[in-house]
């Protein structure tokens, strides 16, 4: 079975596409969900974040206030560099563990849904990499609408990632998500056929 990397800028539509691929039968490894699980009490990221950011990022129930951490790391490049250095090896180890587990199961396709696929170098773990692509104007509008950020906060998050033009250059496949949802899902249907019916590469 094939292992595909699915990426895109923040709010480009990765989760929308990966949800549909999951409905079609793909196994999805979601890096954001893995990062969130590891940041729950007892998880390896929880310990690291708590030690580094201190009591200011703890909620009354002892869980981390991820929004507060986000405010720090997207405003301070050195804090983001710290988080990338510290968190990415822990997240990658968990992705590798889950990937090995999925490979032992009979699934038609494995998808690594990773926002920072190219930035982190994890595109090397896959056979093909697919970018969910939107214009910067569409990205900004969808991000502000979905998360309620003002324009400055939204732009800070977009600026923290590799420019979309560079992601386009590195991707093997593009899904154009500027249009309506049915137009996007039709492209996914075609890719699904190719990824699951063009022979077994492993
Ligand atoms: C900073 C944290 C606590 C903020 O949590 P929050 O729930 O508010 O946001 P969430 O995790 O849903 O991230 C939303 C989006 O922000 C972007 N993003 C997250 N972390 C980063 C980062 N270090 N650099 C650039 N963009 C990032 C991604 O596009 C992601 O999809 C959290 O994102 C985190 O732990 N980040 C470090 C781990 C990481 O790099 N995750 C990205 C996938 S590997
Ligand atoms: N084709 C579309 N038409 C209209 N709205 C869309 C379309 N695709 C996605 N959206 C909306 O845009 C927002 C961002 O989509 P989604 O959450 O799938 O992005 P994402 O890339 O997973 O984001 P993140 O990087 O933050 O995890 C959501 O509110 C989603 O409902």
UniProtKB/TrEMBL annotation:
It is found in: Cytoplasm. GO terms for cellular component: cytoplasm. Its main location: cytoplasm. GO terms for biological process: coenzyme A biosynthetic process. It is an enzyme of class 2 (transferase). ATP binds at residues 11-16. Its EC number is 2.7.1.24. InterPro entries: Depp_CoAkinase, P-loop_NTPase. NCBIfam families: dephospho-CoA kinase (TIGR00152). Belongs to the CoaE family. This is Dephospho-CoA kinase. It comes from Selenomonas caprae.
